User: Fold Knotted carbamoyltransferase YgeW from Anaerocolumna aminovalerica.
Amino acid sequence: MKTLQTYIDKLNKLNFKEMYNNDFLLTWEKSDDELEAVWTIAEALRYMRENNISTKVFESGLGISLFRDNSTRTRFSFASACNLLGLEVQDLDEGKSQVAHGETVRETANMVSFMADIIGIRDDMYIGKGNAYMREVSEAVKQGHEDGILEQRPTIVNLQCDIDHPTQCMSDMLHIINEFGGIENLKGKKLAMTWAYSPSYGKPLSVPQGVIGLMTRMGMEVVLAHPEGYEVMPEVEEVAKKNAAASGGSFKKTNSMAEAFKDADIVYPKSWAPFAAMEKRTNLYGEGDHDGIKALEKELLAQNAQHKDWACTEELMKTTKDGKALYLHCLPADITGVSCDEGEVDATVFDRYRTPLYKEASYKPYVIAAMMLLSKFEDPAAILKKLEEKGTPRILK
Amino acid sequence: MKTLQTYIDKLNKLNFKEMYNNDFLLTWEKSDDELEAVWTIAEALRYMRENNISTKVFESGLGISLFRDNSTRTRFSFASACNLLGLEVQDLDEGKSQVAHGETVRETANMVSFMADIIGIRDDMYIGKGNAYMREVSEAVKQGHEDGILEQRPTIVNLQCDIDHPTQCMSDMLHIINEFGGIENLKGKKLAMTWAYSPSYGKPLSVPQGVIGLMTRMGMEVVLAHPEGYEVMPEVEEVAKKNAAASGGSFKKTNSMAEAFKDADIVYPKSWAPFAAMEKRTNLYGEGDHDGIKALEKELLAQNAQHKDWACTEELMKTTKDGKALYLHCLPADITGVSCDEGEVDATVFDRYRTPLYKEASYKPYVIAAMMLLSKFEDPAAILKKLEEKGTPRILK
Amino acid sequence: MKTLQTYIDKLNKLNFKEMYNNDFLLTWEKSDDELEAVWTIAEALRYMRENNISTKVFESGLGISLFRDNSTRTRFSFASACNLLGLEVQDLDEGKSQVAHGETVRETANMVSFMADIIGIRDDMYIGKGNAYMREVSEAVKQGHEDGILEQRPTIVNLQCDIDHPTQCMSDMLHIINEFGGIENLKGKKLAMTWAYSPSYGKPLSVPQGVIGLMTRMGMEVVLAHPEGYEVMPEVEEVAKKNAAASGGSFKKTNSMAEAFKDADIVYPKSWAPFAAMEKRTNLYGEGDHDGIKALEKELLAQNAQHKDWACTEELMKTTKDGKALYLHCLPADITGVSCDEGEVDATVFDRYRTPLYKEASYKPYVIAAMMLLSKFEDPAAILKKLEEKGTPRILK
Assistant:
């Protein structure tokens, strides 16, 4: 694609009018056209930045970031996206506590949103809570707007919850699309989303769930592999099954990493905690049972340690398609001999894929900005055109 | 009011030239015209935002926020106001310590202000200290500007001190004005500023003090009610008395919540700590007497608990004018059965007034921005006109 | 200098083309022309701000601040510089830990830099580490840019390291230049960089090192004075010697504060920790030897206490040139009887020089902004001219 017009032409063929004034919470709530609109605008924004065309669509306005877990990468991606469009980031630091609910959520959401256009939320710690919390915030500010309290309706971008990690998976997918030369080339490709051993504990399920919930929509042969006991949420598996059936692909499960990797075109080996254990942990936190939490942690680390053979080794990579499957990771990875003694991936494998991995990550600010643009503008294609016509340089020339 | 011109016409009738290059520290240091200028510009800015007209008057510049107490709402209001006008917020985090004084205050104030246009300060913890600190900072940067160190004089906005909470009370008042259809309709209206029970301890006196110091200027019948022992600063009561005399209203005190509520048009039931106790606490902190502080806290909680009947119940609300007094609160409120077992207000009362309460809060960013505009521009009416003529959209269209 | 053109004419006579797309890490890596370009642009930016001409050259973009030590002043100077040019500051908080190395540094540097134009780093705690860390970050993002991961190469500004403190010393020097009426007037002037007693422990060596590494380039007679045992890095002394030889000045060492002050035109009395002790501390931290660190701290405080006579007293000041040497300090100073019982400087001396000291500090935001402008624009003179022609007011008029 060489000109902005190419992106605009593509947008004009898609139906995404439901995204206007709406949140982005789960990829499977969005139509294929809507997802493609996100990727198209993400690429258009990147094209414009590469060509020094300012994409500042807001003269003022806040992008609120609400992180209920530590984060550097997602925080910077969100901040970059806001900055790209002209919003100023304000962090709402509520800590990791689960206390804020009901009245408090409604009130706080409104009190911080008088000039907020976007609220980005990361809340991935507790099963059954994160996505629900986002919907609670969304409902509160929607009501606030309808009641005339807020001049605008702030829309929500899910920056990772207990169910999905849409900004990550949409970036992963855009990377795949570009590596394979287009969505149309993905049909029949085999993607292995597999568990991998990590010495750390309690990694969120949102990545594997987000991956099987999204990647099954492209007609690919998606395999979810993990040791027994590392099941993900059953309802997301149901989503994956339906997606595969609809897209002409497949969704299979296995307890063998080797089987998943065999002839795979794409591999995504990554640690996560068992769904059941995460649910138990959520309850223990709810009960304030700190001894129980410690005991569970110990138990889970011991359970992990039984599966150290689940690693993305050079040997396993050789069994993939031509020995050259595209290796994906949301980063940071646990690299054997680098960031830990034994981890998710061999150092030589990681090293060989470093540049593509960084590129995979580089889509995220643009994907987030695209989600914002689609939620705040009724006709984003016209806006992009107008920005090109204005031609304000991002850096003065 | 339908056009920006209406606001500009109103401004042109007011005398507020002393506000230029000046701080906003206490409402009673300002003339009636000056207060009305704040409300008029606040409304004009809101009108412009609603009509998608950018009010960015600064291309660059910092708004420094200096919070010596935790805050989410005021922090966001200040950040929103800065953003609305084009200033970037930088937080100066000094913690709650009282150590910074004299040389250190002068130096730090200058060192952070090389590009600061506004300094917003919240310092409400210690009696006799907060407002004094603001004046110390103000003096330091004024001198710095005169000495050629600072290219501009950063002006101070009091975001809550030990004496007054002008941005809150000015927002409360703007809400009242709009609810009653204009300042001219307030004469003779009865406003009850009453203490209410809260299970928490040591809430600042700045709201009741700010309310009696401001609301007595409109010819209203202002009643301050609290249990014995919960007196506010005597000098602020003096201000209230003088105001009432000058405005043709009244200022009365009572130890009966029922008496205050009886036939009231407006009620503001809210917990605060006794002035004498806050003064004692300030001294204990000064002496580093942690045991003394703990003992005082215990004592105050016990004292509070003797007055659990001071609550804004449905029964009490029925005794107000037509049973429909306007219920005010600076939020968050201690809601009985919601945020605590027994608190300031019945859940059903709070619920009925939620939308107006949120609206009351929604004025604050505009009030703060108006204070900034009045302190930084000699002819704000001309600036508003120019912004309208430029017609830069806040969100690109 | 009266017009912007004067600065532009001066710039056009200087060769600084190597600064484009490059870092600013050590002053002695830069040519005389390059240093003069920094001062010229710093002054030009200040002139423009004083004349209400916006110098916003970025419509969007991030300035990342990475402080591995607490900081208020430098943080605000960096934020002010970013704001002046249109970049939004994002803080990358890595704490004081030394853990981040190798793979982690490379990855984090790239992950936060997708939209970063500038990275400002302060890392002065550990001998042999700070400057090395900056080069590691620089190399990582340079590679990231070459690999097509980053659309732009973020350049690094050293905001203080274990070796140099270039933004401080360049500001100090600009202050000296202005006080003495031009670089051409500095030849033969005596500058005393001397140790002074402070009751605190472990102050960085970067200021004295930066001063002798920079001030020896102007043909001045630079004297470094300290008690035995407070040596600075030998390699920086070598730099100072070579500079002095090349500039026609001199660089001498002494263990007598009186000798250094005698007939000095400029004095810079300031505490620092012995190089050898800092090196030892770095190793103790590396080994996690907390008892060792505590023991060392105690030992160093005792060592300091033996040199309480190293203070900038009124008596000593009288021995300087006409008793009126220019007193410099990077602030905050330990002022006897004000910020401590016995410290670096008499209160009356400090008081007399307060305004010039604050002015000295006021150059820093402009110096940092100048370094940024020189690293991001191939022809900064043309950019300044264009900004003047555009004539966008910083504050709307």
